[in-house]
Amino acid sequence: MFEIVRYTADKAEEWNKFVAESKNGTFLFDRHYMDYHSDRFEDYSLMFYRDGGLYALLPANREDNILWSHRGLTYGGIIMNAESTAARIQQLFRELNDYLRADGFIKVVYKPVPHIFHRIPSEEDIYSLFSVCDAKLIDRSISSTLILQYPLKWHRDRRYGINKAKAHDVTVDESQDLRGFWEVLTFNLKNKYDSCPVHSLEEIELLHDRFPQQIRLFTASKDGKVLGGTVLYITSTVVHTQYISANLEGKQWRVIDALFDYLLHECDWQQRYFDFGTSNEEDGRILVEPLIYQKEGFGGRGICYDWYEWTL
After folding, report:
1. CA distance 60 to 44
2. At a CB cut-off of 8 Å and minimum separation 6, what does 126 contact?
3. Who contacts 39 (Cβ-Cβ below 8 Å, separation ≥6)?
4. Label partner for 73 (CA 20 to 30 A): which of 32, 39, 146, 165?
């Protein structure tokens, strides 16, 4: 039997320690990250104890009678320690479902941590979604990922872009100029998609201050002006591009090609994977071909980010 406890702020230290030592947690589950947007979500995170010790976590929020894991994060699901077993996680899900029914929930939307972020294999939860919850897949987005130690050959169009950028004195460096990049990013999203970045400038500056080693900005510039860049989220196993953008002048000089040439050939990453992010619309059903073409041109190949759903 598990003791299931709602997370409260006084448990932050215990929560964060477990995340840091877990087999599939990343800094996104640290409460210093999760709680930056706590005003937007009704937190319903759960802590699972067994034999007096903390066994697992579930970052989650409540919307009416639906449990999301967690709607404000790219991925989520049960965070486990190395001792977690398939049978115990099955039991955890059975007891979780009973706990949620008793509190009036009728449905769960669940986003497991993609396997590239696992420090050791951690798909006991996915097996339980099938064997215990009879969950159905409701969203599958494809991301483009490469193994840094075994890169694929780049598309010739990407090589052409690198040469063009170098010929026009485009420079790439790590930067602290989040404001300059956010101007580029915000303008692009507004004009192309009539949308805004998930994070405001103030939010990304706050998170960067809290996680300076995990959240890093690289920019491409010409004559001292930021023309494009990327914000990287860096975990123990993955260098992930959280945002990529270039303005019209940057696109003319192919600064994104120069940017990734620098990141993939000049930086000494210790991680196994470089993840360019997803290229989908409409819950993964529409593939944005020009976007994934660019990422595949750098050698990225498919990794899926999935969402599941089950009724209680």
Report:
1. 5
2. 112
3. none
4. 146
